[in-house]
Amino acid sequence: DSRNQGLVAVKVLPPKRARAQERLLIRFRREMEISQRVGHPHLTRTLEVGVHLGINYIAMEFIPGKNMHKLIHEQGPFKVPRAARLFI
After folding, report:
1. Among candidate residues 8, 7, 5, the one with its CA nearest the CA of residue 48
2. Which of 26, 28, 27, 47 is nearest to 36 (CA)?
C-alpha cells in the first residue's frame, strides 16, 4: 500500500477468465460487494475493491503465514479435529 508502505493481499480475477466465463465475473463481483460489508475478528479486513485497467481486485489486510493449500501439501491431509478447529 503506497499510502502507508504496508503490505496488502490482493485477490484478482484475470480478465481472460472473466471474459471466458461470465459466471466467474458475477461471483467475483458479489464477493467484492460482500467483503466490504462483512466485519469479523476472524476474517481479513477488506481495504478496497475496484477495477484497474480492466482487472477486478479485492485488496485485503495481509496476514503472514502459510495458506491451507501449502500446509496440506507439506504435511498431508489434516486429521478431523484439526480440520474442524481451522474451519470453525
Report:
1. 8
2. 47
For residue 10, the Cα-to-chain-centroid distance in whole angstroms is 7
The pTM of this model reads 0.72
pLDDT band of residue 2 (cuts 50, 70, 90) is low
Size (the chain), residues? 88
Answer whether residue 5 shows pLDDT above 80: no
Owner of C-alpha cell 474442524: 84
- Within 10 A of 18 (CB to CB), how many other CB atoms are there? 19
Strands (E), 1-88: 8-13, 46-52, 55-61
